[in-house]
Specification:
Layout lengths: L7 E2 L4 E2 L7 H20 L6 H26 L7 H15 L11 H25 L3 H20 L9 H8 L1 E2 L2 E2 H19 L1 H18 L5 H26 L10 H12 L10 H20 L7 H24 L4
Antiparallel strand pairs: 1-2, 3-4
Helix pairs in contact: 1-11, 2-7, 2-8, 2-9, 2-10, 2-11, 3-4, 3-5, 3-9, 4-5, 4-9, 6-9, 7-8, 8-9, 10-11, 10-12
Membrane topology: Multi-pass membrane protein
GO molecular function: transmembrane transporter activity
Subcellular location: Cell membrane
Length: 335
């Protein structure tokens, strides 16, 4: 699906010819098909087109957030800022489009401003990482706290409900049977893959995760690319926050709750390594579908939703173990 870091020439930042589809690349799509078929046999409701629509619509926001976090994971970093960044963008867009709190009616401009706010928070994470040499999980936790603080200040004790027809239509109107949110998610996956595959930023993200020292020794200043990756991730989170506002019809400080763990889970299940250098946007998109099909299928066959968090945890542990097994066998080291 994508080119692993070992297939990137760090000196020229150009992908080398592919070596064929590995088992790790084929595993997640095969798992998706198997899980879908199992639930289709167990539940007649699961295999209906209406349920497929529900799965795709429910996966839209997570797919967009996962696009952003995938670029960070490809570098070997961790991003926990999604909840705060999404909360800030959700409240911001609710106050900038037509709403019950003020006379603003900026429409699409309000959406863009909210995404830029989120990108700025992502940039802050990247700058703290490269300038202060603070581990990424700490800088992004800090950015999340800042985002939640901004969201709380903007919320000001009164929930902003949107009345903007354009933003409301994203979750309501449909094209070819799927909501506009689903098509926005598809567009984001496509854009993310194009950035990953055909831009220097995408190729260097792979190279940083796979062999940052080699890239630095070749004369590349990796710091700007790290900041750019976190900024790009923030923009994806911001769009995710706007999409949640469209779904709920209101801006909530908690709009991004849980999306950080869910996005990391989906990326890892799809084959993007936490250690960086392998995977990509298409891998992670498959992981999103695996998670959403599994979640929907468990509900369809009567499994309590309260078990879903535990199931996700087991899946991510199993996926990480399967991904690092070849490396552990080769190195005989457990960190």
């Amino acid at each position: 699906m994508t080119t692993p870091a070992e297939d990137v020439d760090v000196a020229s930042a150009r992908p080398r010819p592919r070596r064929g589809l590995s088992l790790r690349d084929a595993g997640p799509p095969i798992a998706l098909v198997v899980i879908f078929l199992v639930f289709a046999v167990l539940s007649s409701e699961f295999r209906t087109f209406d349920n497929v629509q529900n799965i795709m619509d429910a996966a839209a926001v997570l797919a967009v957030v996962t696009c952003g976090i995938t670029f960070v994971l490809m570098m070997g970093s961790i991003d926990l800022s999604a909840p705060g960044v999404m909360g800030a963008s959700a409240i911001a867009v609710a106050l900038l489009v037509a709403n019950n709190r003020n006379d603003n009616d900026l429409g699409l401009i309000g959406v863009l401003v909210a995404i830029l706010l989120a990108a700025g928070l992502g940039c802050l994470s990247g700058l703290a990482l490269v300038l202060l040499k603070v581990p990424s999980f700490m800088t992004t936790l800090g950015a999340s706290a800042i985002g939640l603080g901004i969201a709380t200040l903007l919320f000001n004790g009164v929930q902003p409900n949107i009345t903007d027809g354009m933003l409301e239509s994203w979750a309501v109107d449909r094209f070819l049977g799927f909501s506009y949110l689903t098509w926005i998610a598809v567009a984001c996956v496509l854009v993310g893959w194009l950035i990953q595959r055909y831009t220097r930023l995408g190729r260097y993200a792979f190279a940083i995760g796979g062999a940052e020292e080699v890239l630095s020794l070749s004369g590349v200043n990796v710091a700007p690319y790290k900041v750019a990756v976190f900024t790009l991730a923030g923009a994806f989170y911001g769009l995710g926050g706007v999409m949640v506002t469209s779904q709920l019809g209101a801006g909530l400080v908690q709009a991004g709750d849980g999306y950080d763990f869910s996005a990391i889970t989906a990326a890892v299940v799809g084959g993007t390594l936490l250690t960086g250098g392998r995977g990509g946007v298409l891998h992670s998109a498959v992981g999103v579908l695996v998670i959403m099909v599994l979640t929907n299928g468990l509900v369809q066959i009567g499994v309590s939703p309260y078990w879903q968090g535990g199931v996700q945890g087991l899946i991510v542990v199993a996926a990480v173990a399967a991904a690092v097994l070849p490396q552990r066998r080769r190195n005989q080291v457990v960190k």
